[in-house]
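Pilot study result, target chain (167 residues):
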Amino acid sequence: MEKVFYSVADVAAARAVLDRLHELDVPDTAIALVAPTGTQMENFPDAVLENATDIGPAAARGAAIGGSLGLIGSLLVAAFPPTGVILGGAALLAATAGGALMGAWSATLIGATIPNEAARHFESELERGRILIAVEWPDLKPASLEHLPGLPPGAVRRLSVPDDGEA
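Predicted structure:
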């Protein structure tokens, strides 16, 4: 499934694109919206705005790393027991789960403040005050969003995706 990126001129154009996507039955979970700092986006669905950060991928990476470190640490304690501490299977499992939880929690806090890859790649669009919209939906015809009634020409532009797969 291809991810399609758009740059829109302002909040009104972003609303028009979002309304058109809803008419095409695209769910909010398939849409990510990134706006420049200070842009008033309170009338947009939370799911659309939450998709614009790296929270999900960061939590997954944190859980994997934290769980691995918890397991390694508990295996080291089991192999070289300090002051006679003996660990059983339940303690190994608890340390692994605890590490995964701590890793996911801390990585989620960090991921909430980091814009997603699309925002990093198309940063120049954000610097010009434009709003980014990413859509990942199998039945979407990309050209169907570029010429919406009531918007001036150029208000919605499709952005080209880099060849190196960064976005």
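One observation from the pilot: The first helix runs from residue 11 to 23. A full batch analysis is planned for the follow-on phase.
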